[in-house]
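tool=predict chain=A
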Amino acid sequence: MNQKTRILIVEDDMIIAANISVQLSNLGYEVMGIETRGEEAILHARANTPDIILLDINLKGAINGIEAAIEIQKSKKIPIIYLTANSDEATFAKAKATHPYAFISKPFNNLDLQRTIALVVDQIHENSAEVKDISEHFEVLVDRIFVRHNGRMVKLLLDEILYIEADRNYSNIITSSGNYLISTTLKVVEKEIKSHMFIRVHRSYMVNIAKLDVVADNHLEINRKVIPISKSFKEHLLKHLHTI
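tool=predict ok
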């Protein structure tokens, strides 16, 4: 690898942490450090921005690994790989909500670690290439986005967007004044738009919940457009509607 992937290890068992550090170094990665507490991991991540954080869920101290990840993600988008010996559903659900790149269950062997890190590094490289391509067609700010339209970048306020519809590898942004087709998948658009007002309701639709006119059992309506709701997204949508 031309530029070494930098990895922060957060593990309160120093024997395990030292073993991981040796393995990663032997595989050609750069170990940025070993932290044993969630509070220290947060400070380290904010100051140094590692490429990957190997994060034990069950840390000693005031906060656990999941809580540390939440704090880190408030200011940094750093891929997380959880290390865990705890496989109960409640813990898994909390960890999953932080969108980790992978889980490694303890005890693990060298091959488990090697393969998981390699897969995550590949994902990071793919996402970086995708983001570079996105920047030429789609840029997100706090309250607006810029999209390439007719050879120029056009500003769209998030409040103006009614819904966004997938069209294979493209997304069609629908506003009350016009439509804007961008060469970016809906999955990527969903990742980039951080506003809590935009909710995925179907594999092909993302809606601005402030623009909803009708919420029925199996569909929504926005500006007379009927939009289907998938069962897998319905509960998430209803929770958001109850909070606004």
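The longest helix spans residues 110-134. The chain has a mean pLDDT of 88.
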